[in-house]
Amino acid sequence: MAETKREIERKYEATGGTGLPDLTRVPGVASVVDDGVMELDAVYYDTPDLRLAADGLTLRRRTGGSDAGWHVKFPVAVGVRDEIRAPLSDTLPGALAGLLRSRVRHAEVAPAVHLHSSRDVRHLLAADGTLLAELSVDTVHAENLLGGGEASWTEIEVELADGTDDETILDAIGKRLKKAGIVPSEAPSKLARALEETGAAPRPPATPGKPGTAGAAVLGYVREQVEAIVALDPAVRRDLPDAVHQLRVACRRLRSAFKTYRAVLDRDVTDPLGEELKWLAGELGAARDQEVLAERLSTRIDEVPKTLRLGPVRARLRIWAAARGGAARHRALDALDSARHLALLDALDTLLADPPLRGAAKRDARKVLARAVLKDHDRLAGRVEHALALDPGHDRDLALHAARKAAKRARYAADAARPTLGKPAKKLAKRVKAVQSLLGEHQDAVVARATLRELAVQAHAAGESAFTWGLLHGREEAAAAETERELPSAWARASAPKIRAALSH
């Protein structure tokens, strides 16, 4: 069984024989207790091309110390990593292998670096004996198992005690160490330092295309979305908050970029990839849509006075949500574990390695991207105007949903162009997002009404009152009507001639 630990730490260089200062002079630290020396032996695993190290991940099998076993570390922020642990075994546990699948894929992980650390540990305690942080002086010897190089160094590591995320004490310790001439380490991890000092550090990929050209701008954005898809795969598996939504957004942004910038990238290559991205987003969407809808209906029930909640409405909603939620989660994980998903990731890597650039890729980025953004904006204008010309009802609901999709594409196009077009693209994206949000609220109300009718039918069949479900249905109708009333003014702001003119210059 794997367990997760949030690791918040700072690393420092221990050079020139500088000794540790008196850390009881750090505010809040009442005593420093020597916890002895432990010998740690770790083998770090990676693919032959060091894919994990390139993304800042570490996979190790360690013996010695209190946490012997397999560890995978994911970077969260500077100095913050999530460590997922599994018991010691001869082979990589399946639970950890799954978290690495989007990066490793069909490659084998093998020993890459052997580290032996002699760790001298000290506990920094508050006046009441509470552990604030652990400081260790590590004497490290590294052997590169891929190239044969070796390196040795000594470093100081200060880690925040488990169960807290207040880094104030780490800041105070850092100031005290700095006064003693002990400076922060430039290496984010022991593995990164070992690879750097043995000449085997992975090199960042280069983005094809001449700087300033449309090809370079579009491929830079495409790479960002591909990297997001790869990085969010394990986050979904870990069931981290908002991970499904973010992965789905990355798929949509990438698919949208392929459509918007067809003058730059050959659609004979990108169209099939777009279909696969649509499939993946759809498989993930079942879980996300279920979660959003359940939260919406729960909130709507909270808004109803108790005297109008007739029947076991909360219990029925919980049963409905549980029945669909588990299935949706399994569907998302099955998609990530599929050969189809791996094939998509490989195809995206191939596109970045050998991009199918068209003639417009060599042209000035500003002109090409501005033209593409304005074209998507025109497409959105047509759909909004068509929807507003229809009478309220089913046909208008469908037209507004189509306009919502166009709004997402126009917004994503502007977001992709922001590094090139600057403030005009940022302003357009912000105003189109407001339109998208209104249209999204409208679509949510439409979907909610269908579900409320389903719940009402189930309640009636079970001999329960359907009154509350009907009441909620009416409120969703009112919510949808309100968004339709607000849409014209929101669209007028998003289609202002000044914004379009700024993009054109």
How would you describe what is shown here?
The protein has 505 residues and is α+β, with helices and mostly antiparallel strands. The protein is globular and about 80 Å long. The N and C termini lie far apart (58 Å). Helix 6 (214-237) packs across helix 11. It is built from 15 helices and 8 strands. The longest helix is centred in the C-terminal third of the chain and has 39 residues, at 423-461. A hairpin with a 5-residue loop joins strand 7 and strand 8 (150-160). It has an 8-stranded antiparallel β-barrel. The model has no long low-confidence stretch (mean pLDDT 92).
In short:
Helix content is 55%, strand content 18%. With 505 residues, it is α+β, with helices and mostly antiparallel strands. It is globular.
Query: Could you report the average pLDDT, rounded to the nearest whole number?
Result: 92
Succession of helices and strands: EEHEEEHHEEEHHHHHHHHHHHH
Content of β-strand: 15-25%
Regions with pLDDT < 50 over 5+ consecutive residues?
A: none
Shape: globular
Please provide the count of β strands. 8
**End-to-end Cα distance:** 58 Å
C-alpha Rg, in Å?
28 Å
Strand order of the largest sheet: 1-5-4-3-2-6-7-8
Q: Which class do the helix and strand fractions yield?
A: alpha+beta
Taking the sheet with the most strands, its summary is: 8 strands, antiparallel, barrel
Report the helical percentage.
55-70%
Number of helices: 15
